[in-house]
Amino acid sequence: MERPDLKLSVRDTFGIESSLTVPAFSERDDHVPEIDPVYRFDPEVTLAILAGFSNNRRVMVQGLHGTGKSTHIEQVAARLNWPCVRVNLDGHISRLDLVGKDTIVLRDGLQVSEFQEGIVPWALQRPVALIFDEYDAGRPDVMFVIQRILEREGKFTLLDQNRVIQPHPLFRMFATSNTVGLGNLNGMYQGTQLLNHAQLDRWSVVATLDYLERQQEIDIVVARVPQFATESGRELVESMVALAELTRKGFASGDIAVLMSPRTVITWAENCEIFRDPLMAFRLSFLNKCDPAERPIVAEYYQRCFGVELEDTGVVD
């Protein structure tokens, strides 16, 4: 289907107090993400993403790791039945991967050279939402490939083909980043780059996604690991989330160099089911990632939330 044939209510679809409606497709294809029924939408970030879909804005979602930036875009796309392709801009993604390259193929029993389009020209010609993950980790030569299509009607030139590609009217572009182009200031995100300000300026909407409020995070962990949907299980999850909040405050004040994201809390809960021991699961899910010099601080956090001295278990020297 080439055109959206539905109008969805933002209030009914995303649970956000708004009278807005957004275009959507009635049919799904293989590139539409699966719907996560327990996903919780941040109102401001959701409206920013919806502006990207409905008004063809270039939207960047910024925030610390584990806040669900990429998932947020995918879950909006899932409810709109909008095809979505996600590209991780790690150091191995090259200009040729994005643009395309000549390859040798067999045709009528003969080897011939044939140009194969990269992900950018492929997506640009279709009603697809293209997500660049870890945008601030992209190599400079790769970033300049993207710069031209950041403009709303930006055409894309394939020099090898002497061809100019006109973007599909329903092509959309999003990105996620940890640092908003400021580089690795605190040592937490090795490999991130300083972004060209001329390029950063082309992102017409920049939204910030923070960690959830405590009760929302508890609800999500319980929804993800239904075994904790009991009174005692919920109490355990409350203590886990309280510990995660202490690590985030400790990171913000410079006491520790790592923090516990909601993703890590969910992993910890899942590992509790595997090992039947919250302490062992905590060590394997988070504590072993910490610098040995910082483990006494994390042990203090654990003691405050669970009433257990980690030193007595031999976990911390």
Automatic annotation (TrEMBL):
InterPro entries: ATPase_dyneun-rel_AAA, CbbQ/NirQ/NorQ/GpvN, CobS_N_dom, P-loop_NTPase. Residues 3-32 form the Cobaltochelatase subunit CobS N-terminal domain. It comes from the Bacteria. Pfam families: AAA_5, CobS_N. Signal peptide: none annotated. One of its GO terms (molecular function) is ATP hydrolysis activity. Residues 59-186 form the ATPase dynein-related AAA domain. This is Cobaltochelatase subunit CobS.
